Amino acid sequence: MRPPPPPGDPIPALTVTPTPTQLFAFSAATHNAHRIHYDRPWAVDVEGHPDLVIHGPLQAAILTRAVLDWAGPTGRLHRLTFQHRGSAYAGDTLHCTGTVTAARPTAVDLALAITNSRDEVLLPATATVVFPTW
Amino acid sequence: MIGTVLNRTRGTVTARDFQRWAAAVNDLNPLYFDPDHARANGHPDVLAPPLYVQYAPLGVPTLDQLRPDGTPDRPALPLDGYPRRMAGGQDAVFHHPVHDGTAITATTTLTAITPKTGRSGPFLLVTTHTTYTTDDDTLVAEITDTLIALP
């Protein structure tokens, strides 16, 4: 047993810089053939992006990793809500951060975000993690 | 149209598939990879990453069902004139962990199509609600997806 963390407590930050190889692996693992994720000339010349586009669901998955790495093996993600507010591209660095906003006897609410290196919020999110055997 | 079931698909969660997904995320949580670690934490076997569950029941589009940009056409959605699609976000609730070998049925219902006007012109906000259930009808997850459709 450990005490619930107090509101305001940060979770450890996670910083990830997805490569074109990672984007391709995620496209393959999700059977996603959208060319903006692996075909740079298509992404740039046809769809007008500056580079290969980092999948929104990959961003959400990376943020979830930060949450569950913090929660440990007894924590279980109960709810995750997120909005895609900005795009991110191959080579961009994603900074995942979060703080505790409320702690109940067996659950913790978190406010989360992915920001890029220009401090733009790409993906604001909230999560609830339950600890059945806290 | 609102309230219509757009899609019902079934697929089996397998350790190899969710481990490939977790490897692509670079999320090497031992709960997903190490059966002994999973059992020591009360699970019958390795468990799927929560966000993976939505991929297991996905259908199999054939190459001729993909548009030139590689995305599948979705004839069930009445979005004529708005061919470009972007993910807007999700609200996902996870009720139960899912383990290797569990079959999942995804049922997607259209909940809203809202016309909007942004800085770069008109777009549609399309929301769907998907339930993920096991063969004994246990609801393991439910996800509200928001899709942005652009002209």
Automatic annotation (TrEMBL), chain A:
One of its GO terms (molecular function) is (3R)-hydroxyacyl-[acyl-carrier-protein] dehydratase activity. InterPro entries: HotDog_dom_sf (IPR029069), Mitochondrial_HTD2 (IPR052741). SUPFAM superfamilies: Thioesterase/thiol ester dehydrase-isomerase (SSF54637). It comes from the Bacteria. This is Acyl dehydratase. It comes from Actinophytocola xinjiangensis.
Automatic annotation (TrEMBL), chain B:
Residues 1-142 form the FAS1-like dehydratase domain. Gene3D superfamilies: Hotdog Thioesterase. It comes from the Bacteria. This is FAS1-like dehydratase domain-containing protein.
